[in-house]
Amino acid sequence: MNEIEETAPFFEELKKLRADRDIDLAEISTRTKINIDYLETLESGDFTFLPYVYVRLFVKAYAVEVGAETEEILQQLDHFMDRRTPVEDIPESGELHDDEHLDDDAILPPHSINNFYSSTIKVAVLVAVVFFGVWVVRQISDEQDNSAGNEPTEMIVPVEPKITDWQLNSDFIPHDEDQEWNLEPPYALTLSAETETWYELETDYSGNITSANLNPAADISFQFQENLYLRIERSTNVSVNLNGTTIALPDQDHPADIIFDGQAGWLTIRSYTPR
Predict the structure, then answer these.
(1) For residues 87 and 201, which has the higher predicted lDDT (pLDDT)?
(2) What value does the mean pLDDT take over residues 63-69?
(3) CA triplet 248, 253, 255: central angle to 5 degrees?
(4) pTM value surpassing 0.85
């Protein structure tokens, strides 16, 4: 990690790094739009004041502002909070050692080895051609099915964020309702609305936040593996389904957040009322 020692808790070292670089906490609050009270709480080592998906985003933004190594900071946060770091496991391809499967005396002559590799390459090419042909046939079949009457999937057009954390902290009072939801991954979210509604979405701590408008009578579906953050412009006349079960939202013309932690089996509905 850049300029951060491993001997002290990471949040203390983050605070020290900020002080060493003469970065005022108010500057970070202004640039990130995170309430300064939240930043002070983070620096104290308290990460339970908000749903974990928010805390993780705040810590990441803080780390970027002070110039720390964000990925390592997030891993230390997950370890500190006894959470599994949401990084896709990419299996490493094991090396094949042919000598492990041959007797010591069974040594192939050079021309046999060449023939073996030549045959292997030919088989691999043939298999690739077959799979490519199957893929092409399926693509053609799918296109024919779509042209036969299936409605095309609606394109998601990104828009500028309509509601910020700063606005919510200034103008609204949050209220959390926690529910226990024991579901099995993968998770499927379906979102629909009776009137045009803005929404913001992030899944699995990916950092890819979708900001778009949801058109009436046009369902949009997302899949994710562990975590969900969804913010909607208003909770009235909006339907949100998770794995086929409807999430009961408050009937009000104000913003709402839906946070789902699949690892803990916990759903939080955060509604906002004007101050």
Answers:
(1) 201
(2) 90
(3) 75
(4) no
